[in-house]
């Protein structure tokens, strides 16, 4: 590899910064002076602190990920040659199996693998990167912190918001971006290579509550206490569409697996399903008896059969309409799961507007819900300080991790590449949980 003159200078300055910061000029005085002279470096004031160490750990992390992907690729190629994989759904299942083990149920177990601390206020939101072992956490201290959940190390802090961070979301494209939103009524786009703020998005009239990238990575969706959902163009930072339909604070969002449907919910106790391509409200789900704090789409397992709960609802949606075969089969949005201050977790067939089942095990507000990658289990966190695992097929609480944090648990995220769950809490910590 040949470095440009600029790259050589940057590398030399980073080496000098490392020598000085590692032990100061008392440990390597002659080495430092000789290096300064021979490299013709006058000062390093503009060099990022610890840049060489950060680059080194990044390279190691990338090498490890490349090796994992090569192993997965070899396994999948063998399976394809043997004729196992025949369609997209099965390929997705095989990919999951290659990553986490064929018999792995992917449910968290205690105690926590690690507890990360550094925020000066309650942790309000969590996001895991879709490719790297990177976690972003937002807090009432107005900062976003980045962590590595494999090494359990703090990486850096992003500053720019002036209010509580209420949402964070990673892009999935080749250009790694982080989107954040805040009670300061703005959203921000961050470049994860330079860690600079690229754009600040303004247009909501009150606190922003949640933010999500669409799978295409060219649009961002936000929701707000101003009762609206907005769609923003990533390239320009312009708001291109506003969704109106809620009668109160919109607190949470989720994007469907097909990327063309949005679920929103909040204080008005309803969940609205929107079609992104035309902005239409195609379904309204009712059933919760208090504020809805969290919603999440997730895939159904290939063998899913929940016909009994659906029949119990008489195959009618919440508007009382009898559902046709066409509406049942034309689109599959997977499952939708919601959590509420009524202490319940509900599983929905979002397109038909049917509540498939309700879990009532929590003893306080439910603050976060995810469907694990197998599509067979719901994992939730709550102000009762517990993490609970619900078996969808058996319609029961399978596992409870009591006192998972020392205070209310505000957020939960499932890694897409490792059997890891990350939770955030009012106790100012981020906990890492292994799944098996």
What attributes characterize this protein structure?
alpha+beta, Methylamine Dehydrogenase, Chain H, 3 domains, 4-stranded antiparallel sheet, 6 helices, WD repeat, WD40/YVTN_repeat-like_dom_sf
CATH class of the largest domain: Mainly Beta
**How many β-strand stretches?**
28
C-alpha-based Rg, rounded? 23 Å
Question: Under CATH, the topology of the largest domain is which?
Answer: Methylamine Dehydrogenase, Chain H
Count of folded domains? 3
Computed structural class: alpha+beta
Largest sheet: 4 strands, antiparallel
CATH superfamily annotation of the largest domain? YVTN repeat-like/Quinoprotein amine dehydrogenase
Helix content: 10-25%
- Helix tally? 6
Strand content: 35-45%
Overall geometry comes to globular
- Which architecture name of the largest domain does CATH use? 7 Propeller
Strand order of the largest sheet: 1-28-27-26
Mean pLDDT: 85
| Uncertain ranges | 83-102, 307-329
N-to-C CA distance = 42 Å
Write up this protein.
It contains six helices and 28 strands. It is α+β, with helices and mostly antiparallel strands and 436 residues long. The protein has three domains: 35 residues; 50 residues, no CATH class; 321 residues, Methylamine Dehydrogenase, Chain H (7 Propeller), CATH 2.130.10.10. Strands 1-28-27-26 form a four-stranded antiparallel beta sheet, with no helix packed on it. Helix 1 packs antiparallel against helix 2 and helix 3 crosses helix 4. It is globular. GO terms for molecular function: dynein complex binding.
């Amino acid at each position: 590899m040949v470095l440009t003159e600029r790259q050589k200078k940057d590398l030399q300055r980073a080496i000098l910064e490392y020598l000085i910061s590692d032990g100061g000029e008392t440990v390597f005085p002659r080495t430092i002076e000789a290096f300064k002279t021979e490299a013709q470096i006058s000062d390093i004031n503009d060099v990022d602190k610890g840049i060489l160490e950060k680059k080194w750990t990044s390279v190691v992390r990338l090498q490890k990920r490349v090796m994992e992907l090569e192993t997965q690729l070899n396994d999948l190629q063998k399976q394809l040659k043997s004729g196992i994989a025949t369609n997209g759904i099965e390929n997705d299942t095989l990919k999951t199996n290659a990553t986490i083990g064929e018999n792995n149920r992917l449910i968290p177990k205690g105690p926590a693998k690690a507890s990360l601390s550094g925020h000066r206020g309650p942790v309000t939101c969590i996001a895991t990167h879709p490719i790297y072992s990177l976690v972003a956490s937002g807090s009432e201290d107005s900062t976003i912190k980045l962590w590595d959940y494999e090494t359990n190390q703090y990486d850096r802090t992003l500053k720019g918001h002036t209010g509580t961070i209420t949402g964070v979301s990673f892009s999935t494209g080749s250009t790694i971006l982080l989107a954040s939103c805040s009670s300061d009524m703005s959203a921000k786009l961050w470049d994860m290579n330079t860690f600079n703020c690229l754009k600040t998005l303004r247009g909501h009239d009150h606190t922003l509550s949640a933010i999500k990238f669409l799978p295409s990575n060219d649009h961002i969706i936000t929701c707000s206490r101003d009762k609206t959902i907005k769609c923003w163009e990533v390239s320009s930072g312009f708001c291109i569409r506003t969704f109106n339909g809620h009668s109160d604070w919109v607190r949470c969002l989720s994007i469907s697996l097909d990327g063309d449907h949005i679920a929103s919910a909040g204080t008005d106790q309803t969940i609205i399903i929107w079609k992104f391509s035309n902005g239409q409200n195609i379904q309204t789900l009712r059933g919760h008896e208090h504020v809805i704090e969290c919603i999440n789409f997730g895939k159904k397992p290939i063998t899913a059969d929940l016909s009994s709960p659906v029949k119990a609802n008489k195959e009618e949606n919440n508007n009382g309409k009898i559902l046709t075969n066409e509406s049942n089969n034309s689109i599959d949005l997977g499952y939708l799961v919601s959590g509420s201050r009524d202490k319940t977790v509900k599983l929905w067939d979002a397109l038909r507007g049917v509540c498939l089942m309700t879990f009532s095990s929590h003893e306080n507000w439910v603050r976060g819900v995810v469907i694990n990658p197998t599509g067979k289990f719901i994992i939730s966190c709550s102000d009762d300080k517990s993490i609970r695992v619900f078996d969808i097929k058996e319609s029961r609480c399978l596992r409870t991790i009591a006192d998972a944090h020392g205070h209310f648990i505000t957020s939960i995220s499932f890694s897409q590449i490792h059997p890891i769950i990350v939770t955030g809490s009012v106790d100012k910590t981020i906990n890492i949980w292994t799944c098996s």
